[in-house]
Write a structure and sequence with these properties.
Radius of gyration: 42 Å
Largest sheet: 6 strands, antiparallel
Number of strands: 19
Shape: rod-shaped
Number of helices: 15
Strand content: 25-35%
Strand order of the largest sheet: 9-8-13-12-11-10
Length: 499
């Protein structure tokens, strides 16, 4: 029987119904080489059809199967030799009761323009049923008339999975409530969703192709290290929390992003070829700051509790005051000094002249260690008129001071002028008040490696100052034999009196 030839979108195809001489394509015609060493047209077409991810079959104008590729064989179990040459699907690929309806729906594609999409159940070779989604379109001959049709089909669940993947991808880059960034193998953003663009303080198009160092002021090294690790080793088992600095019109903002990473590989390659990294992140700055503040409050409350227990075991109230000072320093400040007023000041008594203070205790400036009692000679400290300690006495409240953003030598000069250790750049003075009187000032000092004192720090310093003031007031009462109307004429030299 002579082979009938069809033309499908410029590609020469043919079908053969000769018994026992069919392959996946169906033709059994002479090869027509494309060149000296080129493959034959039939073999090239066979390779193209068999390499498709979708199942494909074709029918001539009479509804006879002319082509059947390997994916169709995988889904239904019927080989090309068993399928090619059959008149339609009736009796083997569909039930007899459904055959007429299904064939009419398929053949209607020859009379329609464009592709027709249908869903129906096909029979497998072992008797099972598979729900498939088909796309069919007419194949026209040289005269423009329908000469047959092709039908591409896939299992419905596979098609639905594909559609879900596409829908998920579109939703992530349109409506997601967290940032999504696709980073290429050069660690540059390739796709950015709207949420991520807002978090980076720029537009979606302005981010593309730019180095991460141009987008972030801090945390770039940590982020690039994570992306490089994912490209080489794969996704980490848990999200990572990263602190970054983001440029904004108002200046740099410090943000904490909880980030997850996924390595992206091409599904078309035989071996995984990394295309980049999928970076998903969510801003958890407020939650992390809340956690840090709660942890800091717990630690400070625990320090106050431990200090109170240790101070209760001190026979000398002045020593108890230094115990409170030592416990307060942990994680709070680098140094501290305690200054006592020679004459306590009451709110009901007008002060006589400028306040005169004696350095009563101080922590070592050269290294860590407990506070040491000083000022045994009772000589007042030569503070300038604008010194923060004198301001604290005048206000009867806390005072914060700092060297500011100045060169290191100027910062050292600033500290020396205030009689503090040279590495000091931040100071917090808290007044010592007990029984309505100002007894002195405790000053906490921080170096350049720490941040400036904040309002929460001032509240903690005031809590410590209250306990220290109570201990020092008790020391005055003990020395005066219980006469609480007397002042601290000794300048806080309780250690001298004990000796």
């Amino acid at each position: 029987m002579r082979a009938s030839e069809r033309t499908c979108q410029g590609v020469q195809v043919s079908a053969s119904r000769r018994s026992g001489t069919t392959d996946e394509l169906g033709p059994d015609e002479p090869e027509r080489p494309d060149g000296p060493k080129g493959p034959g047209g039939a073999h090239l077409l066979a390779a193209l059809l068999d390499g498709m991810d979708a199942a494909l079959c074709a029918f001539d104008a009479d509804g006879v199967v002319t082509h059947w590729n390997r994916e169709a064989e995988r889904i239904l179990g019927w080989s090309a030799a068993e399928a090619v040459g059959r008149p339609g699907f009736a009796g083997w690929a569909v039930r007899e009761a459904d055959a007429e309806e299904i064939e009419n729906r398929l053949l209607s594609a020859m009379r329609a323009t464009g592709r027709q999409v249908h869903e129906f159940a096909l029979l497998t070779k072992d008797g099972g049923r598979v729900l498939v989604r088909t796309q069919s379109a007419a194949v026209r001959g040289p005269d423009g008339r329908p000469a047959g049709l092709y039908c591409a089909f896939s299992e419905v669940h596979a098609q639905i999975d594909l559609e879900r993947s596409i829908a998920l991808s579109e939703a992530l880059f349109d409506d997601a409530s967290w940032g999504v960034v696709l980073v290429d193998a050069d660690l540059r953003p390739a796709v950015v969703n709207a949420h991520a663009a807002r978090a980076l303080g720029t537009s979606r198009t302005a981010v593309l192709g730019r180095p991460l160092g141009e987008l972030l002021t801090r945390g770039v090294e940590e982020l690039e290290n994570a992306l490089t690790h994912v490209l080489a080793e794969g996704a980490p088992p848990a999200p990572a929390e990263m602190w970054v600095g983001v440029r904004t019109p108002e200046g740099e903002q410090r943000r904490c992003w909880r980030s997850g990473f996924l390595r992206l590989a091409s599904p078309l390659a035989e071996e995984p070829v990394p295309l980049g990294v999928g970076w998903l992140f969510q801003d958890v700055t407020e939650a992390k700051q809340g956690e840090q503040e709660a942890a800091l409050l717990r630690f400070r409350a625990n320090q106050l509790h431990r200090a109170a227990r240790a101070a209760a075991e001190c026979e000398d109230p002045t020593e108890a005051a230094t115990v409170h000072l030592d416990f307060a320093l942990a994680g709070f400040a680098d140094h501290a000094v305690l200054d006592r007023l020679l004459t306590p000041r009451s709110a009901t008594t007008a002060p006589e002249g400028p306040p005169r203070l004696v350095r009563t205790a101080a922590t070592p400036s050269g290294g860590p260690g407990p506070s040491a009692l000083t000022g045994h000679a009772g000589l007042p400290v030569r503070y300038g008129e604008t010194h923060p300690v004198l301001q604290c006495v005048a206000r009867a409240g806390s005072v914060r001071a700092g060297a500011g953003s100045v060169p290191a030598e100027e910062a050292r000069e600033w500290a020396r002028a205030r009689l503090w250790p040279e590495d000091t750049v931040h100071a917090l003075c808290a007044v010592l008040r007990s029984r309505g009187r100002t007894l002195g000032v405790v000053t906490f000092l921080r170096g350049a490696g720490r941040s400036a004192f904040q309002r929460a720090d001032a509240a903690y310093a005031e809590d410590v100052a209250v306990r220290m003031a109570a201990a020092l007031d008790l020391a005055d009462l003990t020395r005066s034999g219980g006469n609480d109307s007397g002042g601290n004429d000794s300048g806080g030299n309780g250690d001298d009196q004990r000796r």
